[in-house]
Amino acid sequence: MIKIVRILFLLFFVSQNADALMKADMPKSAKQGSLVRVLITDPEGGPHDVHFYPVGWPEKPDHLEVHAVQINADTQLALIPIGADAKPGLVLVSVFSRTFGYSLTLEIKEAGFPVSRDTQFVGELKGKLLDDFRGQKEELKKIFTERTEKRYWREDLKFSQPLKNMEVTSPFGKIRHKVSKKDGKWDINHFGADLHADVGTPVYAVEKGVVRLATKFLAEGKIVIIDHGYGLFSLYFHLLRLKVYEGDIVNRGDVIAWSGQTGAAIGPHLHFEWRLYGTAISPWNFMPEPPMFEQKAVPPPAKKKRRGAK
Questions:
Q1: What's the pTM value of the predicted model, to 2 decimals?
Q2: Which is nearest to 64 in space by CA: 288, 237, 278?
Q3: How many domains does the chain have?
Q4: What's the N-to-C CA distance of the chain in angstroms?
Q5: What SS3 state is found at 13?
Q6: 241 is in which domain, residue-wise?
Q7: Cα separation of 16 and 100, whole Å?
Q8: DSSP-derived secondary structure letter, 174
Q9: N or C end of the chain: smaller count of CB under 10 Å?
Q10: 3 state SS of 226
Q11: Signal sequence: where (predicted)?
């Protein structure tokens, strides 16, 4: 009850102080894994900040603050990530200029992700391997907190494909069952999409950006991360060989690596992932969703006739 009162108070207070000339438009609802675009129109210009208060606020004080990107003289665009594991419910989105505020509500809906039928056993890491694993996870977190104040992506947010032929072997958001001796059982969403790719298949940059990471990790194998500006990153895992180095500026369509089966990959494929302000969102926010890969049935070998048989 207290939470509802606080939200209604903030919604009323901010809206009453909103500049009549400033407007913010966004969808009324969004599914888990989606990208919410907040279009801000203000003749007085920016800057504008957008605050996203997830389900559980204010008991859980963490919220996301986003700096809007200038599109033209009086229009700015802010991007809000809705994680695959975001809790469904009504949330608050507030837009602030230098002196005014504007609030909207957004309903987060369940995406209905598929559920794996298998359970994956997770081995326990010890000693140096455990230290390396933890260090690599911290390095990823640090990269995702960086916000390059330069936009490499286009206004329509349409990106090219990382592979020439796109077929999905494991979809984004799929709920996977994990088990280990130490932690027992738990479920986790698949934060990327696995794409069918034979070893040695060229992998392409989906848009211009700066290579923030080009190295080898324990779980992800050989990995490339490209920073496209304003908190948006594309990630490529389990690569065979890298063509780029950290700090390189790549363009849309450049070959950045060749796919493989490195790290914890069970078979050859490309794990393709997107992060916005550190939150994993569906790759299909930026390009058409490809079909699922269908394993072609291999006919049994023909029986050889024995000598002398009629």
A1: 0.88
A2: 278
A3: 2
A4: 87
A5: helix
A6: 119-285
A7: 9
A8: -
A9: C
A10: strand
A11: 1-20
pLDDT 10s digits, 174-221: 998 877 767 777 788 999 999 999 999 999 999 999 999 999 999 999
80 and 191 assigned to the same domain? no
- 129 and 50 within one domain: no
| Among the listed residues 199, 176, 163, 165, the one whose alpha carbon sits nearest the alpha carbon of residue 272 | 163
Q: What angle do CA 204, 209, 213 make, to 5 degrees?
A: 80
Residue 115 Cα distances to 112, 167, 170, 188, 190, angstroms: 9, 19, 11, 10, 10
pLDDT at 13 over 50: no
Q: What is the DSSP letter of 260?
A: B
Overall average pLDDT of the 65-88 stretch: 93
- When mean pLDDT is compared across 13-17, 203-207, 297-301, the lowest value belongs to 13-17
pLDDT band for 66, please (50, 70, 90 cuts): very high
**CATH code at position 22:** 2.60.40.10
Residue 303 resides in a domain: no
Q: Would you say residue 295 lies in a domain?
A: no
Omega before 43 cis (within 30°)?
no
Q: Quickly tell me which residue has 């049994």 as its tokens.
A: 300
Nearest to 52 by CA among 42, 31, 38: 38
DSSP string covering 58-126, please? Answer: TTS---EEEEPEEEETTEEEEEEE--TTPPPEEEEEEEE-SS-EEEEEEEEE-----EEEEEEE-PPP-
Judge if 273 and 127 occupy the same domain: yes
State the burial class of residue 291 (Cβ atoms within 10 Å of its Cβ: 0-12, 13-18, 19+): exposed
DSSP classification of residue 129: H
Is the domain of 134 the same as that of 254?
yes
| Cis-peptide into 58, omega within 30 deg | yes
**Over the stretch 220-267, which tens digit does the pLDDT of each residue have?**
999 999 999 999 999 999 999 999 999 999 999 999 999 999 998 989
